[in-house]
Amino acid sequence: MELQNKATALWSNFLNVKMVQIRTFHMTWFAFFSCFFAWFGIAPLMSVVRDELKLTPDQIGWAIIGSVSMTIFARLFIGWLCDRIGPRKSYTWLLILGSLPVMGIGLAQTFETFLLFRVLIGCIGASFVITQYHTSVMFAPNVVGQANATSAGWGNLGGGVTQFVMPLLFSVMVVGFGFSEAVGWRLSMIVVGTIIFLIGIGYYFLTQDAPDGNFDDLRAQGKLEAKKKVTGNYMHALKDGRVWVLFVIYGACFGIELTVNNVAALYFMDYFDLTLVTAGFVAASFGLMNLFARTLGGIFGDNFGSLWGLRGRAFWLFMCIFFEGCALMVFSQMHVLFLALPALIVFSLFTQMAEGATYSVVPFINKKALGAVAGVVGAGGNAGAVLAGFLFKNVIDWSEAFFILGIIVTVASFLAFLVRFSPEQEEEEKANFVEANIETLRARADKSMGELEEALALIEKRNRNASIPAQ
């Protein structure tokens, strides 16, 4: 069943939070931002943690791998959960339960306990799937690519913001309040966990599952498939080869972003002799590109879709991944900061555009199992990060590891040509696209007509007042 009353415009209604679609859009990107911030909150403080817990390079490598490994399973599960109970309840529970290990990592006294909490924190990375799911059910085909890309991109900003905010928060704890470094990084994580918990409560009260109501109500009205069909649809989606192609492709873009978020601060400290705060600011430039880069990927995905249909979206995805791989190889060979930084920014641009391009394709793979597709593809990002993490765990030069990843990403880009759609689906989605655009034009025409009527009424009132003789 197709959900109705999806929003056909994003930017023209951007501040109209009375619309449930727009309110949900803002809540979901902010929730994802907070989760991403918490997920990688410990990464820019790893040099302090390394000194206190006396971690070896091998143990740091395991921490990097652990931080993204659990997310694979969490994303697979959360996609099924969204189809079953809806994104509103799914996000609420994820935020509330996910806040516990974020605060709990402050209790770590050994490598084993630190690794345990680092793995558990990775569960909140499943928030990405709910974010993409929620915007997909709220927005029509003509804008779903940019809605998905913007909500995810602004959420991913958390990975960049945390790179400089956490060192500053740590400095406030140590310098401002006089705590020791060992206590400062722990208190910083407790603050972040508390914020995540409060956002979870807010999400429940400020959003709803779909434009016409929550899933429980829609099922009672016969507007949504029964819960018992969710698992069957999920298994059917897993048999679709295109889902697994996108799984690999997303590992080649989002997986790389996760890896860079984990290692960037240490990389610039160790290879460019930067301080903790300076390395954090440089590393943050990679994540901060999410402010617009992922949105660009979604916008161009929608534009390619309007010109060449679903195959146009797939071709745009190929272009983004291909140039991401080339840019990563270039970045790996930069050994002075004034060359490495611009190379990092260009690499970041294509990486995040590729992520937006991927999720401009995802909503069209299987609408009956949207959660399954979003979850599996999202899990691919973390699977890619786990595999990439082993390169940084081994005793090889990190610049060499980046070069190897660049080659892998470039080769993976050609898989995008395997994402194909039947002629019937191409025609159906073309019709849906046109219909959504017509709705947008009708809404603009109604708004213009209303403004014209108001203007004519004001003119008539002015003329009427002018014709009244002065007393």
TrEMBL record:
The keyword Transmembrane helix applies. The chain crosses the membrane at residues 28-48, 60-78, 90-108, 114-133, 154-179, 185-206, 243-268, 274-293, 314-331, 337-357, 369-392, 398-419. GO terms for biological process: nitrate assimilation. Residues 424-462 form a coiled coil. It is found in: Membrane. InterPro entries: MFS (IPR011701), MFS_dom (IPR020846), MFS_trans_sf (IPR036259), NO3_transporter (IPR044772). The keyword Transmembrane applies. Pfam families: MFS_1. Keywords: Coiled coil, Membrane, Nitrate assimilation, Transmembrane, Transmembrane helix. It is a multi-pass membrane protein. One of its GO terms (cellular component) is membrane. Residues 24-424 form the Major facilitator superfamily (MFS) profile domain. GO terms for molecular function: nitrate transmembrane transporter activity. PROSITE patterns: MFS (PS50850), PROKAR_LIPOPROTEIN (PS51257). Belongs to the major facilitator superfamily. Nitrate/nitrite porter (TC 2.A.1.8) family. This is MFS transporter. It comes from Notoacmeibacter marinus.
